[in-house]
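hey so u asked for the seq, here:
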Amino acid sequence: MHRQEILDNVRNIILATNNGLFPDDVSEFASMTYDLGMDSFHLESMISRLKDEVADIEFTPWYIKASRRGHDTVGSLVDFIDERLVRDVPAELPEGRATHLSSAGPAGLDVEVA
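ran it, structure tokens below
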């Protein structure tokens, strides 16, 4: 998932959990608490939906950082998710290994070792 897709998904979730906002309100630089008026209920609802829709990520480190004034921006959350998704990508196979897609195996991925 690319960063722009994550940003779009986060924006949609913020808009869905806070009916008083307009799409233009939700910029990357907007503070969730100060600019968007999100309280702990809104934040928890948003994180719950993100866990279901984006990935099963532990958001406690982001909460800790976001508790400092100015660090709870939409962009900081997007960056946090993006970093976690990149970290969880499986490592590439060593040189000399071949892969191909097949209808067999979980999620259609069948790895063949040369």
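The longest helix spans residues 3-17. The longest strand covers residues 98-101.
lmk if thats what u needed
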